Amino acid sequence: MNKMKSYLKENLGNILIIIFLSMFVFLMIYNLTEQSLLTHIHWDSYEIQAESWLNGRVDVDNREFLELAIFEGKYYVSFPPLPSVILLPFVALFGRENVPNNLISVICSIITIIVSYRILKKKKAEDIFAIFLSLSIIFGSNLVSMRNEWRRMVYSTNNEYNVFNARRKCIIG
Asked: Which residues, in sequence order, are bridge partners of residue 70?
C-alpha cells in the first residue's frame, strides 16, 4: 500500500496528463464518427452470451455476423467466458442493447495506458517518453479501432507488467 501511495505521489501529474489527453483524443474520435461515450456496439458476442445467461440459457441466438460455434443445432460463443462474466452486471443493469461499450472501452484503454506508463517508469524511462509511448500503444496502433477488444488490451498489459516486474517468469494462457 505504501508503494502505491509513493507511486501516486510521484506520478499523479503525469497520470492526470495521460487521462486528459486520452479523453481528449477519444472524444475527438467519437465526435468525428458521430458517436458518444455511451454508444452501444451491437456485435459484442460477450454481451449476447451474458444476456443468454441472464435468461437461463447457455446457447445464444444465431447472429450471422458473429463467430459462433455450432453444436447439435445450437449456437455458442466459442471464446473464453470471463469477459461475459465481467459484462454480466452491465447487461443486467442496462440491458444488452444499452450497454455503453465505448465508455467501457475508454476506461480499459486508459487503464492499459497507465499500466504501460508504469512499466516504462520502472524501466527508468524519462517522463515525456513514457507518456508518449504509453499513449501510442493505444492511439498509434489499431487498438484504438478495436473497441470490442478492450479485454485483450487489459489482460495483455497486466501480463506484461507481471513479467517486467519478475513476479512471474512465464505467463500461460
From this structure: 75
State the pLDDT at residue 30: 85
Q: From CA 66, how far away is CA 25, in angstroms rounded? A: 29
- Alpha-carbon distance of 126 to 124, in angstroms, equals 7
Give the count of beta carbons closer than 10 Å to the beta carbon of residue 103.
15
Around Cβ 85, how many Cβ atoms within 10 Å?
A: 13
Task: Report the distance separating Cα 47 and Cα 85, nearest Å.
Answer: 9
- What 3-state DSSP class applies to 56? coil
Among 48, 49, 82, 103, residue whose Cα is nearest residue 151: 82
Dihedrals φ, ψ of 123, to 5°? -90, 15
Query: What are 30's three cell numbers?
Result: 467519437
CA angle 24, 110, 107 (to 5 degrees): 95
Rounded Cα gap, residues 168 and 170, in angstroms: 5
Instruction: Tell me the pTM.
Output: 0.74
Question: By the 8 A CB rule, do 97 and 40 touch?
Answer: yes
Whole-number average pLDDT of the chain: 82
